[in-house]
Amino acid sequence: MPNSVRKHSFDESEAPTEPSPQYLSLQPKKNTVLVSHGRPPWYGEDGKRTCDAYVVAVAGGSGSGKTHVARQIVQSLGSIPTVIILSQDSFYKYHTPEELELAHANKLDFDHPDAIDMPLFAACLADLKACKQTNIPVYSFVEHQRLPETKYLYGATIIITEGIMALHDPALRELYDLKVFVQCDSDLMLARRIQRDVKERGRSVESVLDQYLRFVKPSYDNFVRPTATYADIIVPGSNNAVAIGLISAHIRRQLDERANQFRKKLAIPHLYFSGGSGASTPESRLEDLDLKVLPQTPQLVGIYTILRSKETSRQDFVFFADRLSTLLVEHALQYLPYTDKTVTTPVGVVSHGKKLDVKNVCGVSVLRSGGALERGFRRVINDVPVGSLLVQSDATTGEPLLLHAMLPHCVRFRHLAEESWVFLLDAQIGTAAAAFMSIRILLDHGVREDRIVFITFLVARGGGISVLRRVFPQVTIVCGAVDDEMREGWLEGYRGEGNPEGTGRPVWVMQPGMGQIGDRYYL
Ligand SMILES: Nc1ncnc2c1ncn2[C@@H]1O[C@H](COP(=O)(O)OP(=O)(O)O)[C@@H](O)[C@H]1O
Ligand SMILES: O=c1ccn([C@@H]2O[C@H](COP(=O)(O)O)[C@@H](O)[C@H]2O)c(=O)[nH]1
């Protein structure tokens, strides 16, 4: 059912409030990104990343409790999805058949620094720290082997790396913001290792002891324990709740520093980007926004008239939204590159034509309302992979939060993303906060700005589009109509400043708009 809106007068001096997220408590696995809570903007109003992810390294002997420390930190931060654990265990090297034979006979040294692919570990960590995606290897302790698949990671604000050699490599140490060493009694480490390796890693007690005496203990003395000198903090291997609490409090401050808020500036740019502040007033004249607007034929205006009307049934809304999205995608395809192609017709005549000249094309819909463009998109581009981004407004601040990213294969891998054309599908650009975030995500993945085509039903001329245009001038924006203004209001039931009775959230509403497009399409 569409939500109705009440008008709210906006106070320019109103300071943005801190988000008050509700955290889910989940027990994380190693290398896991939790996806139950959103990521606030990690970039500023100029579209640029404001800071790196914060990296904590946890080193110590095998069984000292590194994983335990890392997990306890994650848990005490509320198991939020942007705090991830990156285990060095994933980076054991690929083993040849001969090495595998030695490994199964306990004769391969996994405790030497050379056993770990340090350059790959450093490269993956550097990418994550710079807010880019990475694809880390997957290692099987039972098979002593790197598996064929990789694991895609993106969107971490805090990265906790852990491993026996976490502090060994100078290039890795350069990437850390906080270095922790877990100091534990050797007997306790051995006892824990026996228990764990028998239970979780398919070993016998005898083989664990054999490996321990041959490799683990000498390596601890020679390579692991000496790295404690690089640590900022030494944490005991047991009864360490107080130390973990202090580290968590420090990390929480880093987390808070990495959440930007500027949606209101986007929504009413003329109030913020004035000549007096040194920045120029964003131009909102249609011709200066460089929008690719569909020709306003009577047939197109007719479709919009049906879509805007509150009398239109859901069935008709879906039919005409699908028709409109087909027209928009057809129009958008002209901005992709084509080469000449000659064919012979069934009657034997040579005909000179064109063919689309791109390596990868995919779509990404910004859920939920971007889904309304998907059917038309798939109709026009055959067999096209379509991913999604779930961007929603924070319930109290209205700031966008990235809740989930399910991107197509050709965007997940950087070398493919760099040569992909990506169609972003979202029903409207109002404040432009969701558009900002989704474009930033694609750029983080290495998609070229001039290969992003944003397709939308409606753009609000007085909203964030002018800022979006200035910040990402090379993105092609295709729309069917441009509305003049937006007004701030409350979704029915909002309880907060200016509206103490209800529950809900503040929204900016397009005028005249089409209402809540996602609701009208799906409900
Ligand atoms: N502070 C602690 N208190 C109680 N048990 C712990 C503690 N730290 C680790 N353990 C237990 O010891 C075992 C090994 O810990 P783990 O964190 O996996 O070690 P590491 O990652 O250093 O090899 C696990 O079963 C874990 O539950
Ligand atoms: O195939 C393998 C790879 C590694 N190991 C042992 O694992 C530990 C490191 O893992 P922790 O979680 O830090 O204990 C290291 O001591 C290696 O000996 C292995 O047994 N097999």
UniProtKB/TrEMBL annotation:
Reaction(s) this enzyme catalyzes, per UniProt: cytidine + ATP = CMP + ADP + H(+); uridine + ATP = UMP + ADP + H(+)
EC number(s) on file: 2.7.1.48
Keyword ATP-binding set for record: yes
CDD domains: UMPK
Name assigned to this protein: Uridine kinase
Start and end residues of each stretch annotated as Disordered: 1-24
Gene source species: Lyophyllum shimeji (Hon-shimeji)
Family according to the record: Belongs to the uridine kinase family.
Pathway note: Pyrimidine metabolism; UMP biosynthesis via salvage pathway; UMP from uridine: step 1/1; Pyrimidine metabolism; CTP biosynthesis via salvage pathway; CTP from cytidine: step 1/3
Keyword Transferase: yes
GO molecular function: ATP binding; uridine kinase activity
Residue intervals of the Phosphoribosyltransferase domain: 295-488
